[in-house]
Write a structure and sequence with these properties.
Layout: H1 3-68, H2 71-93, H3 99-120, H4 126-188
Helix pairs in contact: 1-2, 1-4, 3-4
Length: 194
């Protein structure tokens, strides 16, 4: 085998090798984006949505006790409800919060603190307490909406990464076919001897 033929083979194989490495690196980056997006959807959106649901249930329990004028609730069960809400808040703080979410969450905590403070004050004013419950519920609703919007955004990121993987896979196939033809031409082509 002549040196020129060996060089042609090496260049042909090297082109294919470089193409495969390049597409592999691009695909790996896209898979990392998908993985991060899916983890974010679970850890920071679904878990947060569950916590919001649990807190909402507890706030609803307070609201029901107010509607029934159940004084025994405020003497006993209310302490456990507040502990449950505090645990959920601590877990929620461990998730990644967007700027808007952090602002709404801080408003929620402030409104909740005002609500709990009014539970402990005497005399107990039903209308004032009811408006404080509504403020807390509005914050929870806003947090819930943020979870949905952020979940959609993360799904969009995943979809773009998947579309990118599909595009590069198609391009890789076409370029490999083209390079295969080029390598065949290089290998088969014999220059005219002088």
């Amino acid at each position: 085998m002549k040196l020129y033929t060996k060089v042609k083979w090496v260049l042909g194989i090297l082109m294919i090798f470089i193409l495969i490495i390049a597409t592999n690196l691009i695909d790996r980056n896209n898979f990392v984006r998908i993985k991060d997006s899916l983890e974010t959807i679970y850890e920071d959106r679904l878990v947060a949505k569950d916590l919001i649901f649990k807190i909402s249930k507890s706030v609803q329990e307070k609201e029901l006790a107010l509607a029934k004028l159940d004084s025994t609730f405020y003497l006993g069960r209310n302490k456990q409800v507040n502990v449950d809400i505090e645990k959920a808040i601590n877990t929620f703080e461990g998730t990644k919060l967007t700027k808007k979410e952090a602002k709404v969450f801080n408003d929620f905590k402030n409104n909740l603190a005002v609500l709990i403070e009014s539970e402990n004050s005497t005399p107990f004013e039903k209308s004032s307490y009811n408006s404080k419950i509504l403020n807390v519920k509005e914050n929870l609703y806003a947090l819930s909406e943020i979870q949905m919007n952020e979940g959609k955004r993360q799904m969009s990121i995943s979809k773009r990464a998947i579309d990118s993987i599909e595009l590069f896979t198609q391009l890789e196939i076409y370029v490999l076919i083209f390079l295969g033809v080029v390598v065949q031409v290089i290998v088969i082509y014999k220059p005219k001897e002088k």
